[in-house]
C-alpha cells in the first residue's frame, strides 16, 4: 500500500556544525523521497539552496526588546513552529539538538488544539547531553522536553547510554546513526592539491571541525609536531570557526610551513577527495560526522577512541584508533599510514564500503521515515 507523503518541520542550528549538516541532509533526502519539508530556524541552513523543490524555509524573527538583557529565541521559535504547523498541517516537528529546540517544540505543540498538534521527535547530537545535560541550569529542562517528546533518538549507542545516565531518562530512545550523502566535488583532485601547494609524494592530512574545545586542536597540532617525517606532509584544517586563536601555537611548534587553514569552506567534498589521512584528536564525540565524511571518499582516519567514534570506525580495518591524549601514538599511527600506501588504500576502500553499508542516506533515512510513521500512528 502506498503511504501518503508526510509534512515534516525541521529545526536545527543552521551554521557549520555536525547537527545542522545532518539535519539539512535529512531534509534534502526526505524531500527527494516525496515528503514536504519545512525548515524553521533563524537562518536558512547553509547547504539548502533557495530553490530546492519540496523544501520551504520559515525564518524566526528575533526582536531585541530594551527590557531584555538577553534576547530570547525560544519563545519566537515556538510561536513560529506552532504557526507553520497550523498553516501547513505538519505531521511532525523534528528538532535537532535539544536546547532550546525541543522545549520550543513541546511549547508549540501545547499552543495548538489537539487536532492540529504535531508529533515531536527530538534527536540528541552530543553536547546537548554531555555538556548541557550536566548543567543544573539546563538539565531538568532537557529531561522534561525528552519526556514530553513523542520519540527521542541519539546518533550513537554511546550517546543513548550517556543520556540515560546523565539525564536519568527511562523512556525508550532509538539509536539512529548519522549518515552522509556526499555531493560531487566541483574541482579535480589534482587541482585542489595544487591549490594547497602539496608537492608530489607529500601526504595530505585532513582535519575538519568547528574548532570547539572538545576537538582539542592543541593535541592536533602537537600530533603534527610529533611526526618525524617533517617534510613529508601537510596538515589541512577546514575550520568552521576563526583559527586565529591557534596561530601562536602553530608558530611555537614550528609548523608554519606544514599547516594550511581554510576557514568556512562549504565545498568540503573538494578537499575530502584530495586527502590521504583524516586526523581527529577529540576528547569527546558522540559520533564525529567528519570521520564519516572522510570515509565516504575512501580516506582512512587516525582518531581518538572516544565516545561514539568506535561505532563509526573499525580499528585496524577502516582506520586506526588511539587512546585519547597519546599524541606520540597518534603520530606513529599517522606515519604508519603515510609510509604504506597499499595499506592506506585498502583501509580507505574498507572505509568507503562501511560508510555505504551502514551510514548512507539509503541505510539511514528509511529509519527516520519509519519512526515518523510510528509516532503518527501511535496517536491516531
Ligand atoms: O561538534 C560539533 O560538530 C557540534 C555538535 C553539534 O551538536 O552540532 O556535534 C555533535 O553532533 C555531531 C552530529 O551528530 C556529531 O558528529 C558530533 O560528534 C557531536 N559532537 C560532540 O559530541 C562533541
Architecture overview:
- The protein has 380 residues and is α/β, with parallel strands linked by helices.
- The protein is 41% helix and 17% strand.
- The protein folds into two domains: 7-181 and 360-377, Glycogen Phosphorylase B (Rossmann fold), CATH 3.40.50; 189-358, Rossmann fold.
- It has a seven-stranded parallel beta sheet with strand order 3-2-1-4-5-6-7, with helices on both faces. Strands 10-9-8-11-12-13 form a six-stranded parallel beta sheet, sandwiched between helices.
- α3 crosses α5, α8 crosses α13 and α11 packs across α14 (341-358).
- The longest helix has 18 residues, at 341-358.
- The model has no long low-confidence stretch (mean pLDDT 96).
- Bound molecules: ligand GMT.
- Ligand GMT binds next to α1.
- Residues 17-19, 22, 97, 125-127, 155, 178, 210, 212, 214, 284-289 line the site of ligand GMT.
Strand content: 15-25%
Determine the number of helices (DSSP H or I, runs of at least 4 residues).
15
Bound molecules: ligand GMT
Query: Termini, distance in Å?
Result: 18 Å
- Structural class designation: alpha/beta
- Count of β-strands: 13
The CATH class of the largest domain is Alpha Beta
CATH architecture of the largest domain: 3-Layer(aba) Sandwich
CATH homologous superfamily title of the largest domain: Glycogen Phosphorylase B
Strand sequence of the main sheet, in spatial order?
3-2-1-4-5-6-7
CATH topology of the largest domain: Rossmann fold
* Rg: 21 Å
Spans of at least 5 consecutive residues whose pLDDT stays below 50 are: none
Report the order of strands and helices.
EHEEHEHEHHEHEHEHEHEHEHEHEHHH
Specify the overall morphology. Answer: globular
Tally of structural domains = 2
Largest sheet: 7 strands, parallel
Give the proportion of residues in helices: 40-55%
Mean pLDDT: 96
Amino acid at each position: 500500500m502506498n503511504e501518503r507523503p508526510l509534512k515534516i518541520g525541521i529545526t536545527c542550528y543552521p551554521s557549520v556544525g555536525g547537527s545542522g549538516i545532518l539535519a539539512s541532509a535529512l531534509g534534502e533526502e526526505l524531500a527527494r523521497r516525496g515528503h514536504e519539508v519545512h525548515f524553521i530556524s533563524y537562518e536558512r541552513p547553509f547547504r539548502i539552496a533557495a530553490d530546492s523543490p519540496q523544501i520551504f524555509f520559515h525564518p524566526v524573527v528575533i526582536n531585541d526588546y530594551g527590557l531584555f538583557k538577553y534576547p530570547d529565541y525560544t519563545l519566537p521559535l515556538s510561536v513560529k513552529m506552532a504557526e507553520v504547523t497550523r498553516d501547513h498541517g505538519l505531521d511532525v516537528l523534528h528538532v535537532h539538538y535539544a536546547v532550546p529546540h525541543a522545549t520550543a517544540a513541546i511549547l508549540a505543540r501545547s499552543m495548538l488544539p489537539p487536532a492540529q498538534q504535531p508529533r515531536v521527535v527530538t534527536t540528541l547530537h552530543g553536547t546537548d547531553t554531555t555538556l548541557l545535560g550536566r548543567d543544573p541550569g539546563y538539565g531538568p529542562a532537557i529531561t522534561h522536553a525528552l519526556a514530553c517528546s513523542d520519540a527521542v533518538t541519539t546518533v550513537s549507542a554511546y550517546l543513548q547510554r550517556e543520556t540515560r545516565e546523565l539525564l536519568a531518562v527511562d523512556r525508550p530512545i532509538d539509536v539512529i546513526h548519522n549518515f552522509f550523502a556526499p555531493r560531487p566535488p566541483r574541482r579535480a583532485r589534482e587541482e585542489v592539491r595544487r591549490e594547497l601547494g602539496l608537492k608530489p609524494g607529500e601526504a595530505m592530512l585532513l582535519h575538519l571541525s568547528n574548532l570547539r574545545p572538545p576537538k582539542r586542536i592543541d593535541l592536533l597540532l602537537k600530533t603534527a609536531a610529533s611526526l618525524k617525517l617533517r617534510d613529508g606532509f601537510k596538515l589541512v584544517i577546514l575550520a568552521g570557526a576563526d583559527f586565529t586563536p591557534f596561530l601562536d601555537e602553530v608558530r611555537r611548534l614550528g609548523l608554519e610551513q606544514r599547516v594550511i587553514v581554510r576557514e568556512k569552506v562549504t565545498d568540503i567534498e573538494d578537499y575530502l577527495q584530495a586527502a590521504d589521512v583524516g586526523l581527529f584528536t577529540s576528547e569527546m564525540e558522540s559520533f564525529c560526522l567528519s570521520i564519516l565524511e572522510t570515509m565516504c571518499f575512501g580516506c582512512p582516519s587516525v582518531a581518538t577512541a572516544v565516545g561514539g567514534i568506535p561505532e563509526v570506525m573499525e580499528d585496524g580495518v577502516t582506520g586506526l584508533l588511539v587512546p585519547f591524549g597519546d599524541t606520540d601514538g597518534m603520530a606513529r599511527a599517522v606515519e604508519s599510514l603515510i609510509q604504506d600506501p597499499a595499506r592506506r588504500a585498502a583501509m580507505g576502500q574498507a572505509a568507503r564500503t562501511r560508510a555505504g553499508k551502514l551510514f548512507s542516506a539509503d541505510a539511514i533515512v528509511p529509519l527516520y521515515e519509519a519512526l515518523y510513521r510510528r509516532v503518527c500512528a501511535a496517536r491516531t
